């Protein structure tokens, strides 16, 4: 309210409650941060390079202090505010999965990947990229974000596994 130079009451004209305000702030920040990840998919038609760049960007965003706090908060209120949880999921993880699925559709059309269900493959890829990095952060088992080297290592292995399953094998 102070930053916007309005009263708290004015904020609640636009937002139901502080949880919805919090989610709106998180979504705005998330949009700014994920632009780099989306550009990686739009700019590179080599699946290994594009998925590596995308995976690195998205894992860094997801493990940011603000993002981890947001996930914890939304999960904490989702039981009593299921619409808020659904909205957060639809505008975050589900939207990201659909963006990757569209890229994968393009790679299938170009003959670079062999995937029957690109949405499932997109979700699998995201899960592989977060393996060992995100869940410990959500539970506060690890309190600091992963290093860039650790992210690169995990994402690199995720891409290798993904390509082993979905990459087109050279003829010959």
Walk me through this protein's architecture:
α2 packs across α4 (65-77), α3 (47-62) packs across α7 (118-130) and α7 (118-130) runs antiparallel to α9 (148-166). It is built from nine helices and no strands. The radius of gyration is 18 Å and the shape is elongated. It has helices at 8-14, 18-43, 47-62, 65-77, 82-91, 93-109, 118-130, 134-138, 148-166. It is mostly helical and 172 residues long. The model has no long low-confidence stretch (mean pLDDT 87).
List the uncertain runs: none
Terminal residue distance: 65 Å
Shape: elongated
**Percent range for helical residues?**
over 70%
Number of helices: 9
Mean residue pLDDT = 87
Question: How many β-strand runs?
Answer: 0
Q: Give a quick account of the main beta sheet: strands, pairing sense, barrel closure.
A: none
Strand content: under 5%
Query: Radius of gyration from the CA trace?
Result: 18 Å
SSE class = mainly alpha
Order of helices and strands: HHHHHHHHH
Summary keywords:
172 residues; mainly alpha; 9 helices; elongated
